Amino acid sequence: MWEKLKTILKHHKATIIVSVSASALTVIILAGIAGAVMWTNNASWLDGISSSLNKNGVPAIDSNGETVKRDIVSEESHIIDVVEKASPAVVSIVITKDVPIIEQYYQEFDPFGDDFFNDFFGNNGFRFRIPFRIPQQKQNGTEKREVGGGSGFFISADGYIVTNKHVVDDDKAEYTVLTNDGKKYDAEILAKDSTLDVAILKVKGNGFPYLSFGDSDRLKPGQTVIAIGNALGEFRNSVSVGVVSGLSRSVVAGDMFGKSQQLEGVIQTDAAINPGNSGGPLLDIAGKVIGVNVAVSRGAENIGFALTSNMVKSIADSVKQHGEIVRPYLGVRYIQITENLKKKNNLTVDYGVLVSRGKTPEDLAVIPGSPADKAGIVENDIILEVDGVKLEPGKSFASIIRQKGIGQTVKLKILHKGSEKEVEVKLEKAPKSL
Known about the structure:
Blueprint: H1 2-12, E1 15-20, E2 25-30, E3 37-40, H2 44-50, H3 72-86, E4 90-109, H4 113-121, E5 132-154, E6 160-163, E7 174-178, E8 184-186, E9 188-193, E10 198-202, E11 224-231, E12 235-254, E13 260-269, E14 281-283, E15 289-296, E16 304-308, H5 309-322, E17 328-329, E18 334-336, H6 339-345, E19 353-355, H7 371-374, E20 382-386, E21 389-390, H8 397-402, E22 409-416, E23 419-426, E24 428-429
């Protein structure tokens, strides 16, 4: 224990005062941090501080090669520091639209009338009756109103912004970017990716604070993450903290209008993500963007999902370089093979992706004329590997393909009618319609 304490003090440059009594050992660390930490007879405190040290007692390095201190006080300080630095780069996206002006009025209506009562009850009838008040509506022109909101964040000083496609999906609406200092900017939508639910916006100006992308391929379950966004479209720059709960999840996300889409290789987190958080950043402890918040599980607590930063970064780089989203294209629809899918369909493998048609007859398994079609891939083929990478759980087929280049030839190992074979496919530029 004392050797561990010496190692910690060496790296934290702290002064130690020890007092011993018959009942307890009290250690007070007076370090270069706000205040002192005091613990009584609890070795786990040392373990808590040294959890960021490797086996040689050297401070741990995060996914971007930076030193991270994780003692009880410094972890909180890191989070506070990250939030202070990142918040100015996070924006709210306000959606406005021309909507009908509906005027409501009431019309008195007596379903029986005097004749009914006189005929049925005689000339005297009832002395009192209660007529109905029927609500009526009429349209009286239109007016611009806020109809929704989401989140986004700057990725460059010259005004490029990342958000979700579903935040800016209404072509008849107008979008305004509201920065943390209360300034408003008209937003231009440069590109939308329907496959990944990503959109790139641009506002006029320069000198904007912006966030940098981290490497999402290095994420580990249990890693601390921070979500910032316009929660409920009302509470700007709301902060929530959690951990990476899972990696390479595949989910079907739907919106309030009944639209749904398959999201591949997303990050699962227990950091609170609420409506309005869509498009906001998911940050690591070093303040790097490792995800873009995209969906939350309905009927569950603290199950949210974020797109991986590596996939989003490739889209952003493409738009900045080419003015549009340029991505490689294989041309197949598929589902990830699981143990359950294997059992139900008597498959011989429990990994890979099954080439399968979509929900409607128009959603063919292999798109005619696509690179996959040219290579002879057909419905019910199982793609097992891409360039030697086995498509096991945790390995996203879409993510692997997206990291390839247009015109690049990839080798696929395929299970075709019970026999394995290798095919070469030359990737092409994805059509704009996809």
